[in-house]
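Posting here for the record, re: 6-O-phosphono-beta-D-tagatofuranose.
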Amino acid sequence: MFNELNRRFSVPGLRFEQNHNGLISVVIQTAVCTGELFLQGAHITSWRPVGHEPVLWLSQKSNYEKGKPIRGGVPICFPWFGPNANDPTLPAHGFARLQDWQIVDAQHKDGDAIELLLETTIDPFRLIFQVEFGAELKMTLKTQLPQSAKSSQSYEDALHTYFSVSDVRTISIRGLEPVSFMDKVDHAQLKSATHCPILIESETDRVYVDTLSDCVIEDAQGERAIRVTKLGSASTVVWNPWIDKSKRMSDFGDSEWPSMVCIETANVGDSRIRLSPGESHSTTAVISVQALPATSFTGES
Ligand code: TA6
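Prediction output follows.
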């Protein structure tokens, strides 16, 4: 199968591989970046622009098996976020990250970038995932409700991006200072804006509501800032499991929590998307990295 894909999509800097569990991935190696995406879940597992350390975080204990979610990278959450409200036996974050997607196009773009187009169906919706691996990482999840649908339908979506940081206890996250948030670590209470950058000092699981703004992870110790720009997303989720929750996840190493933070580009809760037959919606995230001067982190408290 993956040999057929290599024949069908012969693009310089792109090749298909298959792991020991039969999962097929697209491996990208160009003059501007490296990256990888698994066809299961259209799941981006790595992106590393030239001159930088890897930007996406992956657990050393992740599964890479059919039907199991990969821990890290960019899981696509669809058609619901978190546990299913009506049936707890259904998979958390929906089906999109668990099922095979079909790659329908791969091509070189300006700036030695490579663009992939993948599709899948989650009845009654059709999903198209467009990814551009380049000096920036550009991701768009387009959801279509076919004209033939009998009625309007709603869904939640999220590009649940895991970022690699030097130490989550030393970073600050800017862009959400004026935004209220639902605190999932405190009975999902709606809390007022703090008007301060976010510092991660304990388990953090917040859904920032009604925000279109960029987020910037300032990682002075890692000498870089990571920017998340978004379109078509009204919710931003910030998550770090900290110590106890990490221990409760079998695919998350007990000592891995300091090296990651999630900034998720989403439409959840009251911001869920409702489509009429024939309508579509796109959720886009663009990730960019900027080196920070080494002097900006003194390490002094
Ligand atoms: O986005 C934060 C969150 O909803 C957390 O509550 C945590 O469950 C995380 O997603 C990971 O979910 P997963 O199903 O991938 O373990």
